[in-house]
Amino acid sequence: xxxxxxxxxxxLGLLTQSGLAQPEAPTLLPVPAELRWGRGRxxxxxPLKLQLDNSPDPAVAAAVGRLLxxxxxxxxxxxxxxxxxxxxxxxxxxxxxxxxxxxxxVTPIGVSIDAPTSLGVLRALATLEQLPIRxxxxxxxxxVDVQDRPRFAWRGLLIDAARHFLPVPVIKRxxxxxxxxxxxxxxxxxxxxQGFRVESKLLPRLSQVGGANGFYTQAEVRDVIEYAxxxxxxxxxxxxxxxxxxxxxxxYPRLASNDSAYAVPTRWGVLNxxxxxxxxxxxxxxxxxxxxxxxxFPDPYFHIGGDENDGRQWRRNPRISAFMxxxxxxxxxxxxxxxxxxxxxxxxxxxxxxxxxxxxxxxWDEILGPDLPKEAVVQSWRGKKGLTDAAQLGHPVLLSNGxxxxxxxxxxSHYAADPLPPDxxxxxxxxxxxxxxxxxxxxxxxDSTILDSRIWPRAGAVAExxxxxxxxxxxxxxxxxxxxxxxxxxxxxxxxxxxxPEQLLTQMAGSGSTAPLRTLAEVLEPVKEYKRHFQGFKYxxxxxxxxxxxxxxxxxxxxxxxxxxxxxxxxxxxxxAGRPGRLPQQLVALRAQLLRxxxxxxxxxxxxxxxxxxxxxxxxxxxLAAVSRILLERLTQLQTGQPPxxxxxxxxxxxxxxxxxxxxxxxxxxxxxxxxxxxx
Length: 680
Ligand code: ACM
Known about the structure:
Layout: H1 2-16, E1 34-43, E2 49-52, H2 58-72, E3 83-90, E4 102-107, E5 110-117, H3 118-130, E6 140-148, E7 154-160, H4 168-180, E8 185-192, E9 195-196, H5 205-210, H6 218-229, E10 234-241, H7 246-251, H8 280-296, E11 301-305, H9 312-316, H10 318-327, H11 339-356, E12 360-364, E13 377-380, H12 384-392, E14 397-399, H13 411-416, H14 428-431, E15 434-441, H15 451-455, H16 459-467, H17 476-493, H18 499-509, H19 515-521, E16 524-526, H20 548-551, H21 557-572, H22 584-610, H23 618-640, H24 646-659, E17 666-668, H25 671-678
Parallel strand pairs: 2-3, 3-5, 7-8, 7-15, 8-10, 10-11, 11-12, 12-13, 13-14, 14-15
Antiparallel strand pairs: 1-6, 4-5, 4-6, 8-9, 16-17
Helix pairs in contact: 2-3, 4-6, 4-17, 8-11, 19-22, 21-22, 21-25, 22-23, 23-24, 23-25, 24-25
Bound molecules: acetamide.
The site of acetamide (ACM) has 4 residues, from loops.
């Protein structure tokens, strides 16, 4: 008995290792389904030794190799030391929605991962990568028991490589980012009005003409698919038809719905140019292309777009209108032609081609209609209703509404969108049709320098929404606490969401310091939604994306933190006065921040004046300084207990109204919080 207690005490001593508790707030993202922290730790000073018997999937050893290299540099695995034991049943197939669940245990003597398939192991390794506590000189893994599984099988990221061509390394590093947060579908938007980005050997003009400024060879596509598969990620291509296809028509004018001569457009916007759905030659060309592309892309799903064709070209062409009448594609009045029925006819023909090649068709929610075969998957982007309508009609569905990263909304807003919210009107059977969702990164305003910063870290919020149990993913403040850690992790993986904008700043600053520009840029955000198209600056595909608006984060972390500080001060109330102990830190921090912003303006104005491309941002720096001055006065009022005068309030209101005006398609992200603090 003594011996037993002695052993227990020894074990307990090992586990608690001098009684140090785990960090109270670990930074795992997405939050695992079940998680129990122990009190022990596993030192990372000695590299882990891999124990992997019987590994039918080479992706596992490769992923472990990458992880260990990142943890320890390129050190060779030691002969002895703590063990990383991995056991799994069989090779997993992402494209078959194979099992991704796993268990991961870290104890003071080693790490063990168990999973039914290799996909689960890859997900476990992504969790393990987020575990190390990088305490100075003594990095360690905290003791933990994780039992994890995804909420949704389809957790995607759409990357639009059509609007701006994105070279293979850009796609690959974003695949690394996806794997880090357990996203598992790359939706590769490969064609649009402005570009056709894949080599076709049967229809070479598609990429020669549509991809004149960049396309992927078939070898490169295979390389990306292999790279993705090694990370448990599927690649679903999108070839957008019948709208968004001007590049196709430019290459093959016989596809056009009118007699116009087309060039690959350099302008943005919904062009409402559409393929002619009445000619058999259109279908024979599509059949050739889709036969070639369905062989190139092994995933069973194949996206045909189908969005944003208002049918104006079809209605205006007497021959196409006559076709619609002859087929009975008319509205309830019996006379007006119905473009939707013609598009459904087109969709059905495309669906037959895809089915012949063993594929399941996916399309945007415009493809939905009573005659659409149930097998077609509907991706809802225009509203939540698209998802419920489609599921109620028996279609598998995906949610993208709420997940459009290019609208420059906050991570919190993406987090709030849920494919199956608690108040979903769907029945249990209909809910089973909800495959998941996809973050969408449309790239009118993103080239290869800027793209990563428009995706990350906000896509992490979508990743968590789609992976974690609903109940475990509700705390927005905690999401924001974890996102910076993910952001740092992603930089070490090779993402350039921090370095890309920094590179632009360096170019702008020339021989001067980047600091004053950065101070302004980091409290700016690009104007929201698609307002950037409508603010006096004409963008084309040729416009360089190298202005301060391109450096400005989609969601300003500095402004968000400022807002949090303001909230805590305001929650403290005007009772700050006379109670100096009440919120000293927040007040000191706020005052320091405001003084920095105020002091930034004079030097920055000199720099802006020297560079014509930067001058347009002068007013924003002026406004930032003016708002700071008002808020410094407000802090003094709060601290001295002096109520603001009517004149002060009116001047403050005028300053804050002026500060709302965008410049250079960017806006100050601190105005709402400033209003709160000023109380106007
Ligand atoms: C879309 O955003 N047009 C699908």
